[in-house]
Amino acid sequence: MAAVIEFVEGAIRFLFVNAVSERKFDEKGAYGHALSHCMKAVDRIVEFEDKYLFIEVKDPQGDRSHTEKENMAFVAQFKRGELDADFKCKYRDSFLYEWASDRAEKPIYYYVLFADETLDSALLIRRSHALESQLPVRGPRGVDWPRPFVQGCGIFNIASWNKRFPDYPVTRIDGTGAP
Question: Which of 26, 56, 80, 160 has the highest Cβ tally under 10 A?
Fold first, then answer.
């Protein structure tokens, strides 16, 4: 039965209207994938009646475990495309795990929220295109597969996420959990 699901990942609050379930996939234990020694994992999996959303969250602006200089270096790595392979592996390993667990029977969309508001839309589009080509969204020679590996993907900051997904708003919260 569909419901409104809310969760917090780091300093970001997510709200999903008409979701069926949600789980923190990269955690250890019964709800996580439990294979971190050999597989990467997306942060969250949100299920809807007709699809799954695989969500990866990177929040250098809200990451207080690193220095400002380290967070700026991380953003620079993102801008240069040095995180593309990691994003790709997180999706592929998560998809493989879910497929082997017989939970990949609906279309899957993969979204990365890179919560840095200094990123412009042109950069986010370039990084999204790079992710589409690495997954790949389409099969060999650009021909659609009968059963897609990933239905679609994209990389967003908070503003572009909220513009693209008004039914799945995200907000930044402070360190106390208050809006």
Answer: 56
- Using the structure block, give the residue that is written with the tokens 């990269």: 26
Give the model's pLDDT for residue 40.
87
pLDDT band at 49 (very low <50, low <70, confident <90, very high): very high
Enumerate the H helices of 14-148 as residue ranges: 68-79, 84-100, 121-134
Q: Bridge-partner residues for 24, per DSSP?
A: 44
- How far apart CA 97 and CA 40 sit, in angstroms, is 10
Instruction: Write the DSSP symbol of residue 142.
Output: G
Q: What secondary structure letter does DSSP report for 176?
A: T
| pTM of structure | 0.91
Tens-place pLDDT, residues 19-42 = 999 999 887 666 666 676 668 899
| Most distant CA pair in the chain, distance | 49
Strand pairing of 44-47 and 152-156?
A: unpaired
DSSP type of residue 78: H
